[in-house]
Design a protein that fits this description.
This protein has about 325 residues and is of the alpha/beta class. It has two domains: about 180 residues, Rossmann fold (3-Layer(aba) Sandwich), CATH 3.40.50.1970; about 110 residues, Dehydroquinate synthase-like - alpha domain (Dehydroquinate synthase-like, alpha domain, Up-down Bundle), CATH 1.20.1090. It is about 40% helix and about 20% strand. The protein contains eleven helices and eleven strands. The strands form three sheets. It has a seven-stranded mixed beta sheet with strand order 1-2-9-6-5-3-4, with helices on one face. Strands 7-8 form a two-stranded antiparallel ribbon. Strands 10-11 form a two-stranded antiparallel ribbon. Strand 1 and strand 2 form a beta hairpin. Helix 4 packs parallel to helix 6 and helix 8 crosses helix 11. The radius of gyration is 20 Å and the shape is globular. It starts with a strand and ends with a helix.
Amino acid sequence: MHEVLVDLGERSYPVLVGPGARHRLLEVLPIGARKAAIVSQDTIPVTVDAGIEQALFPLDDGEEAKCVESVEELCRAWTRWGLTRADVVVAVGGGVVTDTAGFAAAVYHRGVAVIHVPTTLLGQVDAAIGGKTGVNLPEGKNLVGAFWQPSAVLCDTETLLTLPPREYRSGLGEMAKYAFLGVDDLPDLALDDAVAACVACKARVVGADEREATSGRRALLNYGHTLAHALETVGRYDLRHGEAVAIGLAFAAELARRLGRIDTRRVDEHYAVLSGYNLPVALPPDTDADEVITVMARDKKATSGLTFVLDGPTGLEVVAGVAEEAVRDVLDMVQAR
Ligand code: GLY
């Protein structure tokens, strides 16, 4: 079992990574907790045993469950059940569950402990680590939320064996970015080691910049995400999040080359990682560049013109004010014909 510490002073917590990690729940419960509210979805075939009084609070299926109404329902149900601030919430599922339950935990009684048991690859290498919680509004994704660090995270790699192949591949898209954030030889690592290496990388970044200060290190975790979020926001393309990130990584590499920041060999390293994971690298053939550029200009990071995380001689950095012409040329180049 790998054990990674997210080092945040008094908010530090362990992340256990390996087969059977969910069975270590009892060991990481907050001292004095008497009740564990388990939040999950019916489609998630993973159960946990907290070893104290526990009850299941199911969320509806799908991304639609990540909404303000779910937070109200959870808080009301917890109140009726008698959950106190000394107790614990355990979120078992993918990003929808950990983001929603994490946010409900952040606001319930002004904050109750939460333990995440992410059951998807995407959740294990990203969503469940680092304390970002939140829900969507009809106006956009993740618009309401809070930083609320979990008290532990259990990344049980056994649960990944039950994932539908496309869901698993989507997780690989999120994983691929870590090859450019300092995880060497990522594609050569066994799954447990790869998840642990990505968690350790994210833990270092979050430890250095917990609240994503502008241009701080945490923003670099969004490598490949500017285009990915735009494709998802447009919403017309049949892409899972990690697939969109993979296309976003290929695009970011090509854009960095076009801007003279990296050479062809470095671009090829991006393609090698992405194709090694069998991920898409081309935009959908019907991508509307104007629409995508408009959405990218509204990105949260875009403080001054089009803004991207780009590779360069000293590694990744946030680059603002990228010329629209260059972006348009590169979008054209990475569009499948
Ligand atoms: N998913 C990016 C972050 O946690 O900061």
